[in-house]
Structure prediction request, 193 residues.
Amino acid sequence: MCCGTKRLTEIRCPSGCPYLATAREHPPAAIVRQHQRDVGYLVQAMRDLNERQSQLFVAIATFLVRYEPDDLHPLIDDDVAEMADAMAATFETASRGVIYEHSAASVPAQRLASALRPRILDAPGPHGGGSAFERDAAVVLRRVNDAARGVRALEPENRRALVEMLGRVFRTPPGQPDAAAAAEPDAPRLIVP
Prediction:
């Protein structure tokens, strides 16, 4: 009973534990249903996107999962929606050849936009006035905005419904190294105050 309820939360299980291996192979039905709902919602949010737009959507979702705010304000769906709305408006005006940066209404959403902007602009392809990339980015950011507002409508009491959903879908499985940590194998692991 203790192993089943406190596994990996209070008890540090060895990676070769047969009970841990069985639990990973056969998760509880509630977790499987929740994962199916989450993936179904994200597939619905990504419907009709072309390959480049889908890759950009996944890149933004992965960024949101790994994003850590500078201050004590946790990332909430309203900030994600405001950020996506402001950035989409910026890319829409840029796709028409006008350079104007729209600002998010809240400070946390503006910080999120400032952190995401360089990652989007690092994507391959032309970024000049009226480019297809800017139109694609605007479409994807509108979808992120719709997803944030849609999930929030499904779970009005949970202010982090989309962020938590993305965390469940795009998380690194236990036992596998995180892609960012694997990219820097020589990074120091000691935190010095």
Summary: Confidence is low (pLDDT under 50) at residues 179-193.
